[in-house]
Every structure is written in C-alpha cells, then in structure tokens.
C-alpha cells in the first residue's frame, strides 16, 4: 500500500506537505521537508488514514486520494458463469487464471514501486551533481576574481614605483649625486705658474 501512496505523492507538481484524515478525527498535516517520499508514504500507511491530500506551500490542495477499504482492496476476480460451475476443468482453469491475475497484479505494483524509487534516486543524484557543479563554478569564479584583483594591485604598485623613480630619482642615484657634489666642492684650487718664472728669478 505504501508503494501506491508513494506513487501518488511523486506525481508532479510534488507537494510541499500532506494532510491526512481518518474517520471523523481532525486532519493532520505532515511536512515533507528533507524526508524521502518513501518514508512519508510509510508513515501515512502506518497511520491507517482514509484520505490523503497533497498541499502546496500555500496550503492549497493539489490533489487528493481516498484510502478506504474499497480502495485498498485489489480488483475482484470476474464472476464465473453459472454453466461452468459443474465443470471441474473449467473451475480449475478459472482458479489458475485468478492466481495468475493476482500474481501479475502484485508484480506490477512492485515493479512500479521499484521504478519510482529508481527515478527518485536518479533525480536526487542529478540534483546533487548540479549543486556540486554550482559550488565548483562559484569557487572558480572567486579564484579568478581574486587573481585579477591581485594583478591590478601589483600593476598599481609597479606604476607607483616607476613614477617615484622618474620624479625624484632612485635612492642610490641621489646618494651618488650627493657624494660627487661633495667631492667637487671640497677639492683645492690649482694655481697657475707665473709668467716670468718662480721666486722672482730672471728679473733684471
């Protein structure tokens, strides 16, 4: 029975919550949240309710399904014609057909339940892959933006350094210029020799 409820819950649009009621009691609301639909279906089946209503996020009814005794029972076997009651072979074939019908009905329910479970898992896996890809893209974009910001910062620092060197000269160049200027200012003056000889010699 839970497989039938689960299949009902998985019909699109999927519900945000489920409201169940039994007999004349007050209805109860089951929030789905992060629960799997299989777990919600098992809970509803264990509560033995008569009515299941799928609700959207605003509390509006999306669809409803009754779970009364008539709905829970599988299809009845067709009535045997009156003329065949006395024929043992006809009764045997009819009984075999009924057993085969029950087996196919049960296997169909199981197959549908497994198929829904498989599709649900595939959907969960695809959703997980999309979230992981989104996180990877976000991290990659942040890394690229940080690299671009670092490159701009280095370029601004290099431009400022070059501007400082071109305007005032480098520190080494300033020190060398000051040293050479001091050497030139402190050098003694060179006297030129006298035109008529040294110490007055050669005068008449």
Structural commentary:
- The protein is α+β, with helices and mostly antiparallel strands.
- The protein folds into 2 domains: 1-73; 85-163.
- 58% of the residues lie in helices and 10% in strands.
- The chain has helices spanning 2-9, 37-47, 69-72, 88-168, 171-185; strands at residues 17-21, 28-31, 51-55, 61-66.
- A 4-stranded antiparallel sheet has the order 2-1-3-4, with no helix packed on it.
- Helix 1 crosses helix 2 and helix 1 (2-9) crosses helix 4.
Summarize the structure.
This protein is α+β, with helices and mostly antiparallel strands. 58% of the residues lie in helices and 10% in strands.
Report the order of strands and helices.
HEEHEEHHH
Distance between the termini: 150 Å
**Major sheet characteristics:** 4 strands, antiparallel
Query: How do the strands line up in the largest sheet?
Result: 2-1-3-4
Residue fraction in strands? 5-15%
Q: Shape, please?
A: rod-shaped
Query: Mind telling me the C-alpha Rg?
Result: 48 Å
> Roughly what percent helix?
55-70%
Uncertain runs with pLDDT below 50, 5 residues or more? 200-204
